[in-house]
Amino acid sequence: MRVVVAAALVVLSWVVFFAAIQRLSVGLATVVFHVQPLCLMLAGAWWLGEPLPRARIAAALLALLGLSLATGLVGGAGAVVSMLGVGLCLVAVVGQTVVGVLLRARTPVPPLALAWWQCAVGALALWPWVLVAGWPAWGPAWGWLAALGVVHTGLAYVLIYGGMARLSTSRTALLQFVYPGATLVCDALVYGRWLAPGQWLGVGLMGLALWWGARPPRSAVARVAAPRVG
């Protein structure tokens, strides 16, 4: 039952996030959605009793600032704000946070099972849309659709869920900033959409935050470095 609930929450999160993008700028929707790592850190400390190093909280806030710069939200021309769009983003945040906690619970959700049920629940929930809008035109669209299903969901999500089950929630939360940073860099290198200097600064801040937050806590370093007695 928990697997089905987690899969349904993943599907709900992505559906409402894409609905939010239609009402907000892509940059604003991305920034609002990435409040989720902070929520995941707090949820891990509250529900699971995991330690929450202050350095990782600071690193997550720095990464969020970097993301705001990289998307052009800070220092840009401004974005149209829809409260409905912001609300949809926050629904996605709650859904993804609960999934992250379920993956770290005492009896965690198996990654392969979650990915399978994610596909099954998504296909069942979105089937009416296919009946109304029709199937994609035959041709390259089906190849992209198959690649999204096999690579993005079948492979990537199993690896992501497997990693989340083995890492603390604070480390998992911070690593979520790799995705938007890598997307912006690939967009520039592959499609030639080069970023403005301020946006590159934001990408750099995200990289700095990831490096900073990946360092082990001082207490752990002290324990390793301490000489053994006897």
UniProtKB/TrEMBL annotation:
<dbReference type="InterPro" id="IPR037185">
    <property type="entry name" value="EmrE-like"/>
</dbReference>
<keyword id="KW-1133">Transmembrane helix</keyword>
<comment type="similarity">
    <text>Belongs to the EamA transporter family.</text>
</comment>
<dbReference type="GO" id="GO:0016020">
    <property type="term" value="C:membrane"/>
</dbReference>
<dbReference type="InterPro" id="IPR000620">
    <property type="entry name" value="EamA_dom"/>
</dbReference>
<feature type="transmembrane region" description="Helical">
    <location>
        <begin position="141"/>
        <end position="161"/>
    </location>
</feature>
<dbReference type="Pfam" id="PF00892">
    <property type="entry name" value="EamA"/>
</dbReference>
<keyword id="KW-0812">Transmembrane</keyword>
<feature type="transmembrane region" description="Helical">
    <location>
        <begin position="115"/>
        <end position="135"/>
    </location>
</feature>
<feature type="domain" description="EamA">
    <location>
        <begin position="4"/>
        <end position="70"/>
    </location>
</feature>
<dbReference type="InterPro" id="IPR050638">
    <property type="entry name" value="AA-Vitamin_Transporters"/>
</dbReference>
<keyword id="KW-0472">Membrane</keyword>
<feature type="transmembrane region" description="Helical">
    <location>
        <begin position="28"/>
        <end position="48"/>
    </location>
</feature>
<feature type="domain" description="EamA">
    <location>
        <begin position="84"/>
        <end position="211"/>
    </location>
</feature>
<protein>
    <submittedName>
        <fullName>Permease transmembrane protein</fullName>
    </submittedName>
</protein>
<feature type="transmembrane region" description="Helical">
    <location>
        <begin position="80"/>
        <end position="103"/>
    </location>
</feature>
<feature type="transmembrane region" description="Helical">
    <location>
        <begin position="55"/>
        <end position="74"/>
    </location>
</feature>
